[in-house]
Amino acid sequence: MKTVAQYIDSLRERKLRLWVDGERVDDPVEHPKIRPAINAIAATYALAHDGDEDTRRLATVHSELIGERVNRFCGLFTRPEDLIAKLELQRALGRLTGTCFQRCVGLDGINALFIATHKRDGHQRFVSWLAQVQRQDLVLNGAMTDPKGDRSKRPVDQPEQFLRVVQRRPDGIVIRGAKLHQTGAANAHQIVVMPGQGLRPGEEDFAVACAVDVSADGVTMVLGRQPSDDRRGGPDAGNARFGGQECVVLFDDVFVKNEHVFIDGDVEASGVLIDAFAGFHRASYGGCKPGNLDVLTGAADLITRLHGVRRASHIRDKLVEMAHLTETIYGLGRGACGKCSQHDSGIWQVDRILANVCKHHVTKLPYEIVRIAEDLAGGGLSTLPSLADLDHPELGPALQTVVHSRERAQALRLVESLAYGAGSVPFRIECMHGAGSPQAQRIVLERHIDWDAKVARARVLAGLDEDTELAEIS
Ligand SMILES: Cc1cc2nc3c(=O)[nH]c(=O)nc-3n(C[C@H](O)[C@H](O)[C@H](O)COP(=O)(O)OP(=O)(O)OC[C@H]3O[C@@H](n4cnc5c(N)ncnc54)[C@H](O)[C@@H]3O)c2cc1C
């Protein structure tokens, strides 16, 4: 398993074609807008080598595939407890970094691919590739979301809006298109390309899942800009050391060798993949987001202490509300992982309904928690001068008095970052759209809830039908 230093060195060995704000960036590792996101991923490597045995056990897992302990972010869910451990690790990392640590889409993607390729052409190739990923402890960018253009049209009607196979050769395939919102792409080693939506017969060219090296010819990445971007990297950033990252990834006729093609032209396997991924990833939000919310609650609490209002009953009540909403999300994530079942492939899957309810709450409750944090923080949250002004030899003394303290200023910056600054992208907006926008969860719930069972019991208790389940009670 890689150490933090080995991970960062491995990033320097890549030859990325990366653009930031209209400029080509040759060394992403030292770039101020990228380094915080690299630091957040580095935390996943740090915990795997942590001195504390419990932490190491959480951050690593025994791989039956290669017979060694591997970083949990490269592991398969081969035991029910793996799902719980993943969630606990996500909460711990969400709390430690206060942001998105970018390895979950890849983790959920490999488990979904194991299921989707099971007993199909491509499974052996996938497993051989995964063994390499585990040995080398690689960061995987899970790439599903296509641009989609006009959402009312199918991929065949606007192929340029979907990643697709444009050529099949004896030694591999050539893919063209783009994937948007790619978490951690510029900090990854490989891109796991997957279809972004259910496909129909006739749409086989879009049914492709494969692994692409981030340095492959034809791959271009463009970093997303974010609010408060000019504050990244220093204490004024709010979160001084850690940040998230999303890129547009362009695939301009990228060749993928056969060994790295896991699904090609199989629309049914693509459907299984999307279904399995959605379950895993929607439950994931019950881990990472509560961890981020712990940080937001902590920052709000700190400000109330610095303001001398912590003991007021309405302040205590609002902090309790923040915690209660956070634990609601976490409880649903735990519930989805706890109520798991084993797929024929051996992979343990979360409960589909609870995972979707969990993610659906994530599209709502953090917004209420942010509202409370903004209430508790006061207006200084958005109007404070920069820390450079507070430290200025001329201005500083006067400002330090009215601003109260540097401690207060930095706590306010942290709330600002999570509420609507750089930290809000991998937190709030990710809560809304990551793993699918709200309607995506409602569609799954409508499909999978057993409506007839509810009606049947209601009919019995209304006296319309006989009670066959509790027949002995008169
Ligand atoms: C911070 C962040 C990180 C992300 N990380 C990743 C990642 O690592 N990998 C990845 O693959 N993706 C990632 N995503 C993408 C995420 O999965 C998508 O944003 C999500 O699936 C929604 O897709 P969209 O953004 O295209 O919005 P849309 O699908 O356009 O949704 C916008 C609105 O339109 C509605 N809508 C959409 N289609 C229809 C339709 N046909 N009819 C009626 N209404 C419709 C939706 O319900 C929603 O209300 C990330 C997103 C964010 C914000």
List the helices and strands and how they pair.
Layout: H1 4-12, E1 18-20, E2 23-25, H2 35-48, H3 53-59, E3 60-63, E4 68-71, H4 80-97, H5 104-117, H6 123-136, E5 140-143, E6 164-169, E7 172-183, E8 190-193, E9 208-213, E10 219-223, E11 246-257, E12 261-264, H7 267-306, H8 313-338, E13 341-342, E14 348-349, H9 352-362, H10 365-377, H11 380-383, H12 387-391, H13 396-403, H14 406-420, H15 425-433, H16 438-448, H17 451-461
Parallel strand pairs: 1-10, 5-8
Antiparallel strand pairs: 1-2, 3-4, 6-7, 7-11, 8-9, 9-12, 10-11, 13-14
Helix pairs in contact: 2-3, 4-7, 4-8, 5-6, 5-7, 7-8, 7-9, 7-10, 7-14, 8-9, 8-10, 9-16, 10-14
The structure holds flavin-adenine dinucleotide.
Flavin-adenine dinucleotide is lined by residues 105, 142-145, 148, 151-152, 179, 181-183, 246, 425-426, 429-430, 433-434, 436-437, 439.
Describe the 3D structure.
With 474 residues, the chain is an alpha+beta fold. It has two domains: 4-270, Butyryl-CoA Dehydrogenase, subunit A, domain 2; 275-449, Butyryl-CoA Dehydrogenase, subunit A, domain 3 (Up-down Bundle), CATH 1.20.140.10. It contains 17 helices and 14 strands. It has helices at 4-12, 35-48, 53-59, 80-97, 104-117, 123-136, 267-306, 313-338, 352-362, 365-377, 380-383, 387-391, 396-403, 406-420, 425-433, 438-448, 451-461; strands at residues 18-20, 23-25, 60-63, 68-71, 140-143, 164-169, 172-183, 190-193, 208-213, 219-223, 246-257, 261-264, 341-342, 348-349. The strands form four sheets. The protein has a six-stranded mixed beta sheet with strand order 2-1-10-11-7-6, with no helix packed on it. The protein has a four-stranded mixed beta sheet with strand order 5-8-9-12. The chain has a two-stranded antiparallel ribbon with strand order 3-4. Helix 8 runs antiparallel to helix 10 (365-377) and helix 9 (352-362) runs antiparallel to helix 16 (438-448). The longest helix is centred in the middle third of the chain and has 40 residues, at 267-306. The termini are far apart. The protein binds flavin-adenine dinucleotide (FAD). The site of flavin-adenine dinucleotide has 22 residues, from strand 5, strand 7 and helix 15.
